[in-house]
Each structure stands twice: as structure tokens, then as C-alpha cells.
Write a structure and sequence with these properties.
- InterPro entries: G_CP_dom, Gnl3_N_dom, GTP-bd, GTP-bd_ortho_bundle_sf, P-loop_NTPase, TRAFAC_YlqF/YawG_RiboMat.
- This is Guanine nucleotide-binding protein-like 3.
- It holds the Pfam family GN3L_Grn1.
- The protein is α/β, with parallel strands linked by helices.
- The protein is built from 18 helices and 10 strands.
- Among the domains are: about 230 residues, Rossmann fold (3-Layer(aba) Sandwich); about 80 residues, Conserved Hypothetical Protein Ylqf, Chain: A, domain 2 (Orthogonal Bundle).
- Helix 9 packs across helix 10 and helix 10 crosses helix 13.
- The protein is elongated.
- The two termini are about 70 Å apart.
């Protein structure tokens, strides 16, 4: 039961008593006021008529009054002027604000996209700056390679910068993620790479446990500690030998393309999670110093930026693609390039999906299988493409590429430079260490690993000037694209629309061909030229007439 509020009504006896008290109080106040009496203001007696110089005194008093009035008027005018000035300034400010708001509303969408991309470009220049710092400061440079595609992870610009830097700077190749390729393939790559630089087989530590292990109790996972790694002892021995030869402490720089496992190698050598690690590309954004012992420091570096002149496959696997950006065509192009360089049957077996005609159908089937659907049961192709690209660059999918049959040295390497790079390292101990790591690991069978065709070495941007030039080129491309969009949005008459649409289609075909032509650089090898021809075969299908190609071709028609 709810309690009722107390009533404010009073009894008549109490009310009359209060009124009586008020009347008595007022009477008392009036009596006291009578006793005190009212103080009236005294009147000015003026100048007596008998006083001498009466007229002069009165004149002075009038003059004083006039001066006071003039002063008051001047002060009033000054106040009015100041008030008018303030009003004018406020009006100007308001007008400027209104103009800015109007301009901002018009170009809000354009400015947001531009600022975001400019920030990305600024980060690219900072990446180059930090990478150059690491190369200059380090005595030994570790180039980390993904064992699934070692040739695609090699950067000729980086190797040339280290070998031609002068001094006693050494370059070591670290073949990481060796547990994701067949044993025979990995041994072939070790034999191939050690002819140019000393190569270390490595399997970095991860926090994921083996699925075959059964644990009864749910133990707490300490994120700061990592699981067992292979190849760390061999690598640390090489550093100790180099310290003895140099007779001073050394700095080791770890460099490479995104998602090859630079930071995870440092964590494995340290034994503690010292550097941030993630599936996303470009987690490390600045130089980080990690002390392994008194004699060796390791410098973690941001990833090498892939040159846009590379093939579509190299850009898909090695460049920092923004997967969070909605509707990014780079991701779809990247997956198209990956599927073109793989065996179709093996991909179907790996993902357990039926036969598909093109990339769009493959992604749709995979999205339906994994339950990635939008409203109305439509397969979420974009998010599926991003997830698939993360799987291929991460450590989920096992694929392998074959080393070249004939070994040819790159133009920046000679036998003298190879001997210089190998000097100071005990190659026998290195081979013994590699054999122990190879024997200790379990490898996937060749049937379970997808055969992959490598695109060769990937060109990278190391100097800041090139990164700035690339940023300015991208700005020009964006402005031209915006102008084209504005022209397309212009409303036209119903009679002329059909003819204009035909002209636009022909223009788009020409621009696509021009873009594909620009992406091919003359400095590529013969193999890269052959692969670019294979990728350009997609663009040739655009030249079909409307009668021949009624269906929408997803391979070619998205931009």
C-alpha cells in the first residue's frame, strides 16, 4: 500500500493564531519607525544674498555643471562607437562562419576521403624513414622471407642498399614459417638461397596450441610468454660469433614485407612478447629496440612498402591493403590474382566447394558455406574476400612455390660480394643448425599443400623521395577520378542517353587498358612479363561486343 502525502491544510485555530502574530509584528515595526523618525534629505541652502562675489560663484557652479554634462555625453558617444565596432566584428565573423559551413557541406565527403588517404601517404613516408634508420644503424640485417613464397618476399632494392652500403654490414636471409610447406620443398629453397646469402631456417613461436593435444584442465594462457620456437639457437650462435669477430656489441635489424613474421621472430629470440604482433598488415609503425643480451640489440622495423609497378599478385600479398575500407577493389583484384596463380582443383579440395567460373562465384559459394550472409540471404562477398586475403597472408593456409630450375645471380650481386657477406659466419655450424631444425618439425604432406606460381622478386620503396612522388601521383589520380564522377552525374536528356552511355563504355575500356599498361614496368624479368600477359588476358575480354557478352562478367566488370 502506498503512503499518502501529508495534507497542507491547517486548523482554523492555528491559522488565526499565525495571522495575529503577523499583525503584532507589523505594529511593532511601525512603532519603532515612528520613534526613529524619517530622515529627509537636506536642501541646498544656496549662496546667501549678502555674500560677496555671489554672481561669480553662481557662474562657476553653472560652468562646472556644463562640464560634467559634456563629459557624460562624450563617454556615452564613446560607448556607442565601441558597441558599433563590436557589432560589426561579430557580423563579419558570423558571415565567415556561414561561408565556411556552406563550403564544408559541399566538399565534406571529398575532404574526408582526401584527408584519410593523405594520412596514409604520410605514414608511407614515415615507414620509409624508419626503415632507412634501421638499415643504417644495424651491423647485421635480417631479411625475413615467407617459406611459402621466398622469392616473392625478396626485395632487390633492399638487398642492393645493404650490399652496396660499404663497411662491414652483413645480410642474412631468415626462412620463416617453414612448418607451412612440405619438407622437400623447404630443403630445395634452403639449397637455392644459401648460394647467394647465408640462410637460416626458422619457425617462430605462436600462442596457438596444437589441436591434437588434449588437456583435461583449462590452464590460464599467459600472453606475455610464447610457445616453443625452432631455429633461434642457430641464429643466436651466429650473432655471438659475429660479436667475437667484431669485438664490440652489434645491432641486428629485422626487415621484410608485411606479414612475413618480423616481430614474431624477435619475440621468439627474446622469449617474451616484446613486440606487438597481429594478423593486420603494418602493425609495427616505427623502429623499436629490443635487448637480447649485453652484446646484441635487435631493431624491429616497419614493413617495406611495395612498389605499385609490381604485378597484381605481388601487390595483393606484399602491399599494405586497407581491408577496413568499404568496397575496396584492391582486395577483389588481389584474390583474383591469387586464384589465377593456383591450381583450381586444389583450391576446390581445400575449401570443399563445387566448380566455379570466376572469382565472384568462388567468393559467393564460400560465403554461403561459412554463413557470411547479408539481409535477404545475399552472400557477403566483400567481407569474405577480406577474410580470405588475411588467411593467405597469415599462417592459416599451406601453399608452396618451386625454386627456379636455373640459378642466375641478380645484377647487384657478384661472387666477391657473396664471399664478403659469408665472411664472418661459420657456415658449417649454420648447416648443422638448419638440419636440426628441419628434423625437429612436422610438415604438411605435398597433397595437402596448394601448388603456387611465384611472381618473382617484389620491388619495394625504400627512399622517402619515391614515396612522396607516389603520393602526389595518387592525388592526381584521385582528382581526375572525382572530375569524371562529376561529369557522369550530370543529368542529360532522355533522347541522348543511349548514345552517351555507349561512348562512356568505350572510354572506360580505353582507360582500363591504359592503367594496365602503366602497371607494367620495363625493368621486370621475362617471367614477370609472361605473368603480366596472363593477367592482361582478362582485359582482352572487355573488347567483346554486347551481343557476344550479354551476361555480367564479374572477373572484368568491377573497377
Amino acid at each position: 500500500a502506498e503512503l499518502k502525502k501529508a495534507s497542507k491544510r491547517l486548523t482554523c485555530h492555528k491559522r488565526y493564531k499565525i495571522q495575529k502574530k503577523i499583525r503584532e509584528h507589523h505594529r511593532k515595526v511601525r512603532k519603532e519607525a515612528k520613534k526613529r523618525g524619517r530622515k529627509k534629505p537636506k536642501k541646498d541652502p544656496g549662496v546667501p544674498s549678502a555674500a560677496p562675489f555671489k554672481e561669480e560663484l553662481l557662474r562657476e557652479a553653472e560652468q562646472r555643471k556644463q562640464r560634467l554634462e559634456e563629459l557624460k555625453q562624450k563617454q556615452k558617444l564613446n560607448r556607442q562607437k565601441e558597441h558599433e565596432k563590436r557589432r560589426k566584428l561579430e557580423a563579419k565573423k558570423n558571415a565567415a562562419k556561414i561561408k565556411e559551413d556552406a563550403e564544408g557541406k559541399e566538399s565534406s565527403s571529398k575532404s574526408k576521403t582526401k584527408t584519410k588517404k593523405l594520412l596514409d601517404k604520410n605514414s608511407k613516408t614515415s615507414f620509409c624513414r624508419e626503415l632507412k634508420k634501421v638499415i643504417e644503424a644495424s651491423d647485421v640485417v635480417l631479411e625475413v622471407l615467407d617459406a611459402r613464397d621466398p622469392m616473392g618476399c625478396r626485395c632487390p632494392q633492399l638487398e642492393q642498399a645493404v650490399t652496396c652500403s660499404g663497411g662491414d654490414k652483413k645480410l642474412l636471409l631468415v626462412l620463416n614459417k617453414i612448418d607451412l610447406v612440405p619438407k622437400e620443398n623447404m630443403e630445395k629453397w634452403l639449397n637455392y638461397l644459401k648460394k647467394e646469402f647465408p640462410t637460416v631456417a626458422f619457425k617462430s613461436a605462436t600462442l596457438t596450441k596444437d589441436k591434437t593435444m588434449v588437456t583435461k584442465r583449462r590452464a590460464r594462457v599467459d600472453l606475455s610468454r610464447t610457445t616453443e620456437c625452432f631455429g633461434s639457437k642457430c641464429l643466436l650462435k651466429l650473432f655471438q660469433e659475429h660479436v667475437k669477430i667484431q669485438n664490440r656489441p652489434i645491432q641486428v635489424g629485422v626487415v621484410g614485407f608485411p606479414n612475413v613474421g618480423k616481430s614474431s621472430i624477435i619475440n621468439s629470440l627474446k622469449g617474451v612478447r616484446a613486440c606487438n604482433v597481429g594478423v593486420a598488415r603494418g602493425v609495427t609503425k616505427s623502429m623499436q629496440i629490443v635487448h637480447i643480451d649485453k652484446q646484441t640489440k635487435i631493431l624491429d622495423s616497419p614493413s617495406i612498402i611495395a612498389d605499385p609497378s609490381n604485378s597484381a599478385l605481388a601487390l595483393a600479398l606484399r602491399s599494405i591493403i586497407d581491408t577496413e575500407e568499404p568496397g575496396s577493389a584492391d582486395v577483389l583484384e588481389g584474390i583474383d590474382a591469387i586464384l589465377n596463380h593456383c591450381s583450381k582443383q586444389q583450391v576446390m579440395m581445400r575449401y570443399t566447394i563445387p566448380d566455379f567460373r570466376d572469382t565472384q562465384e568462388f567468393l559467393a559459394l564460400l560465403a554461403q558455406k561459412r554463413g557470411m550472409l547479408k539481409k535477404g540471404g545475399v552472400p557477403d562477398v566483400e567481407n569474405m574476400a577480406k577474410l580470405l586475403l588475411c588467411d593467405w597472408t597469415g599462417a592459416k593456409i599451406s601453399y608452396h612455390s618451386q625454386p627456379p630450375e636455373s640459378h642466375t645471380l641478380p645484377p647487384y650481386l657478384t661472387e666477391d660480394k657473396i664471399a664478403e657477406m659469408q665472411r664472418g659466419f661459420n657456415l658449417k655450424n649454420l648447416e648443422e643448425g638448419n638440419t636440426t631444425t628441419v628434423q625437429a618439425l612436422k610438415y604438411p604432406s605435398p597433397a595437402n599443400s596448394i601448388v603456387f606460381q611465384s611472381a618473382g622478386m617484389s620491388n619495394g620503396i625504400i627512399e622517402e623521395n619515391k614515396a612522396i612522388e607516389e603520393a602526389s601521383e595518387w592525388e592526381n589520380l584521385e582528382t581526375s577520378k572525382e572530375e569524371e564522377e562529376e561529369e557522369e552525374n550530370f543529368t542529360e536528356s532522355d533522347d541522348d542517353r543511349d548514345s552517351v552511355e555507349e561512348n562512356d563504355e568505350s572510354k572506360v575500356q580505353v582507360t582500363r587498358k591504359a592503367k594496365l599498361g602503366k602497371q607494367q614496368s620495363p625493368a621486370h624479368s621475362d617471367k614477370q612479363m609472361a605473368e603480366s600477359k596472363h593477367s592482361n588476358s582478362l582485359s582482352l575480354s572487355l573488347d567483346k561486343t554486347v551481343a557476344e557478352d550479354d551476361a555480367y562478367d564479374f572477373n572484368t566488370d568491377y573497377v
